[in-house]
Amino acid sequence: MSPQNSRPTPLTDVHERLGASFTDFGGWWMPLRYGSDVAEHRAVREAAGIFDLSHMGEVSVTGPEAGAFLDYALVGRLSAIEVGKAKYSLLCNESGGVIDDLITYRRAEDDFLVVPNAANTPAALAALRERTTTATGRVFDVTIADRTAATALIAVQGPGAEAILLDVVDPESAEAVSRLRYYAITDVVVRAGGGELPVQLARTGYTGEDGFELFVDVDSDPHAAERLWEVLEEAGSAHGLVPCGLAARDSLRLEAGMPLHGHELSEQIDPFSAGLGGVVALKTKESFVGREALAAIKENGPARRLVGLASDTKRAARPGYTVLHDGTPVGEVTSGAPSPTLGHAVALAFVAPEHAEAGTELDVDLRGRPSPFRVVQLPFYQRER
């Protein structure tokens, strides 16, 4: 059972059956690992892994002005998303800091699904609701509904992901799986427990591998998530599928150079500092929250830049460690670990702009011992297409 202050997911009983070690993450009682972090990591790179992502938020944004509203609320141009497609964007404050990074799916002309990070869901939901009325008094004709408690989310990631999905969907859905492109969403039917289970299937991912996210309604069917997990687990056994926890998810996203809110993103970190300036639609949108501040940051240049650091050893640079140049502090590590795939330590760090060029030799203070690292292009790892 989860502690009193941690929220269980619809799959907590499944994780307990599988012998998971748990941790509180963003107020949720989540599996950290089932056995070996490294083994779970490698399974995703070489075969497939299954993750419980039910801690992620699901916010429905509907109505005739849903697209225009999201254009105002987020930094990207969400109204340009085609039906059935998705877009990565940022929810920023007036100063340009990142409240959350999130993915938005357009399920119909006036129906969007916004997926914020677990710990940030309350703040993201509050900001979205507040922004239904603009600073000039315009009120958008839009309805915002928190569907987090009614939705379970399971991810299957890795080279074997598509084959596993094809083994569990009904024949009429097989073509939809195969034709689903990256950053897209569709409806499929999964054969589970002798019946049919409607699923919204997305193809995005946070691991650097091909993979799918399966949204299932647990409001009308409280056991839907367990049924879905079990059919995926059974079909995946022939493809090397293993259950994976948050530890493997973190090392996988680090290798892929993907930011984690609270590390590479926060309300004190702007998109240009984090290398995400490309998602800010300054050229195509005249009005959105944070636009004025973000335009100024782009014009003046950020005071620090996020870079990738690589070492020739496995000695990890952990979050908070100081980055040095000729013994002088020039930055700070935000994420770091030995890379199971590459065999050496990698890290993400904010450094002064003059030290952000690829190839720059720097040191990281590893508990009082400077250790050499070099700036490298991100991502650290990229799968073969």
Automatic annotation (TrEMBL):
<dbReference type="GO" id="GO:0019464">
    <property type="term" value="P:glycine decarboxylation via glycine cleavage system"/>
</dbReference>
<dbReference type="GO" id="GO:0032259">
    <property type="term" value="P:methylation"/>
</dbReference>
<feature type="domain" description="GCVT N-terminal">
    <location>
        <begin position="11"/>
        <end position="283"/>
    </location>
</feature>
<dbReference type="InterPro" id="IPR006223">
    <property type="entry name" value="GcvT"/>
</dbReference>
<comment type="subunit">
    <text>The glycine cleavage system is composed of four proteins: P, T, L and H.</text>
</comment>
<keyword id="KW-0808">Transferase</keyword>
<dbReference type="Pfam" id="PF01571">
    <property type="entry name" value="GCV_T"/>
</dbReference>
<dbReference type="GO" id="GO:0004047">
    <property type="term" value="F:aminomethyltransferase activity"/>
</dbReference>
<dbReference type="GO" id="GO:0005960">
    <property type="term" value="C:glycine cleavage complex"/>
</dbReference>
<comment type="function">
    <text>The glycine cleavage system catalyzes the degradation of glycine.</text>
</comment>
<dbReference type="InterPro" id="IPR006222">
    <property type="entry name" value="GCVT_N"/>
</dbReference>
<protein>
    <recommendedName>
        <fullName>Aminomethyltransferase</fullName>
        <ecNumber>2.1.2.10</ecNumber>
    </recommendedName>
</protein>
<feature type="binding site">
    <location>
        <position position="213"/>
    </location>
    <ligand>
        <name>substrate</name>
    </ligand>
</feature>
<dbReference type="InterPro" id="IPR029043">
    <property type="entry name" value="GcvT/YgfZ_C"/>
</dbReference>
<dbReference type="InterPro" id="IPR022903">
    <property type="entry name" value="GcvT_bac"/>
</dbReference>
<comment type="similarity">
    <text>Belongs to the GcvT family.</text>
</comment>
<dbReference type="GO" id="GO:0008168">
    <property type="term" value="F:methyltransferase activity"/>
</dbReference>
<dbReference type="Pfam" id="PF08669">
    <property type="entry name" value="GCV_T_C"/>
</dbReference>
<keyword id="KW-0032">Aminotransferase</keyword>
<feature type="domain" description="Aminomethyltransferase C-terminal">
    <location>
        <begin position="304"/>
        <end position="381"/>
    </location>
</feature>
<dbReference type="InterPro" id="IPR028896">
    <property type="entry name" value="GcvT/YgfZ/DmdA"/>
</dbReference>
<keyword id="KW-0489">Methyltransferase</keyword>
<dbReference type="InterPro" id="IPR027266">
    <property type="entry name" value="TrmE/GcvT-like"/>
</dbReference>
<dbReference type="GO" id="GO:0008483">
    <property type="term" value="F:transaminase activity"/>
</dbReference>
<dbReference type="GO" id="GO:0005829">
    <property type="term" value="C:cytosol"/>
</dbReference>
<dbReference type="InterPro" id="IPR013977">
    <property type="entry name" value="GcvT_C"/>
</dbReference>
